[in-house]
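User: My collaborator sent over this chain with a note saying "see what the structure looks like." That's all I know about it. Can you take a look?
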Amino acid sequence: MMLIGMFTKHGINRLCDIVGIKHLMTLQVNITANGRMSLPAGIRKRLGLEGGGAVLIEETADGVVLRTVGQAVTRAQAIAKKYGDHPDASVDAFLANRRTDSGE
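Assistant: Without extra context I'll predict from the sequence alone. Here is the result:
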């Protein structure tokens, strides 16, 4: 009985609360035979995609993540910020390491 309840909207939200996963919404969308899918209007509006736009799809071990380009850039900037103070984090350092590795 509990397992069936976990697959309802409220059950998924409760399960995410229990395991500490940030979860906003779960919706089913259908994918056509040629790979097209429709993102519901409410989600497009919240993401600033009312007139269309680009999204990035990331395949992970847990499933598929769909992000706007802006969300992906913000995420990449946050990751890069963690390494910004590292002495080998500059482009010059990267190129010098590549030259060294290649024997130049």
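A starting point for your reply to your collaborator: The first strand starts at residue 55 and ends at 60.
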